[in-house]
Design goal:
With 217 residues, the protein is an alpha+beta fold. The protein has 2 domains: 80 residues, 2-Layer Sandwich (Phosphorylase Kinase, domain 1); 124 residues, no CATH class. The protein starts with a helix and ends with a helix.
Length: 217
Amino acid sequence: MVKAEFLHKYIQPWGLSEFTEMSYRTANTLYKCESKQRGACMLKICSDKNEAKNQFNTLREYNGKCFCKTYNADIENGVLLIERIDYENILRCVDDLDERLSIFCELFRGLHIKPADKSLYPTYLDWVDPKGVIGDSVFDIPRFILNEFDNSITNESYNKITYIIKTLSIKLEVDESDIRRLLYVETSMAYCWCVEDGMTPNMDKVLFAEKLLQEVY
């Protein structure tokens, strides 16, 4: 919980009101709020100032294309005021798997841009994190697949994820073995973060990703 006196620093200068803290399983703190100038906003307080700087630079570079806009920032204190985008449906609400894959592929192709200044960002050699990091666009593919994992791993789950891997490999022209390797890394990292947040990791899913990886050989 962020102390009220800390939030008070931004109320008048940024014209903010109606704070509601969001449930957000991370070291960062996130508030819904209203801005007199901007309307519906999110106030994000990052535990890592470098993370705030990277996100600010990234959102400013995209300038609202595919991502929310950034309005104000206090990088020294890790604080960002960003556009609040309220969505009606998430991708998993689309019942047809092939339609979900088509939507993802369309988004994926138009999502990535080259930075004006590469030196502003860390690379995947320095930091494995999806936010504001320079690296091959292929790293976004396993994150999508990870969201397609079912709550429990069954034969149907295996067939579904295998179909997704093969379909994305063809549509996006990415080697299937690379997708399987990246999925294993992404799954392992996801559950490492669960441990970091004090949660119990689902080792069944890690072992499932390992099985998919072993089929490369």
